[in-house]
Write a structure and sequence with these properties.
Structural class: alpha+beta
Distance between the termini: 91 Å
Helix content: 40-55%
Strand order of the largest sheet: 1-2
Number of strands: 4
Length: 113
């Protein structure tokens, strides 16, 4: 139910019910028009429409039990602990030489020569 409130200066504010707002949001979504085009067509304030989207779309997603999206596009990760072995892990094997940790190229050249 639309309600008009008269302000000083001759301007009036139109108040809409939640059902009317939901109807407008659904019509805009199904129309294929951008928010700007839809607001211009129906003489709506675009900032108000975006406020409705923010407020009422979050309500419908809560009602529908849809999990909210994570802000910022962050993805969840799972940290898997490194396995610990009884003996050291082999890093590299050069001929009969076994290396159990990373070494510099200079060190390898000295071993091979």
């Amino acid at each position: 139910m639309e309600q008009n409130q008269q302000l000083t200066g001759g301007k009036s504010i139109l108040r809409r019910s939640e059902e009317e707002i939901q109807k407008l949001l659904n019509e805009q979504e199904q129309s294929g028009l951008t928010v700007k085009e839809y607001c211009e067509m129906f003489d709506l304030v675009e900032q108000t429409f975006h406020g409705w989207l923010k407020r009422y779309r979050s309500k419908t997603s809560k009602d529908a039990k849809v999990p909210p999206t994570r802000p910022g596009g962050f993805a969840s990760i799972e940290v898997v602990p490194t396995l610990v072995y009884d003996r050291p892990q082999l890093f590299a094997e050069i001929g009969n030489i076994k290396l159990f940790k990373e070494v510099s190229a200079e060190y390898l050249k000295t071993l091979v020569s």
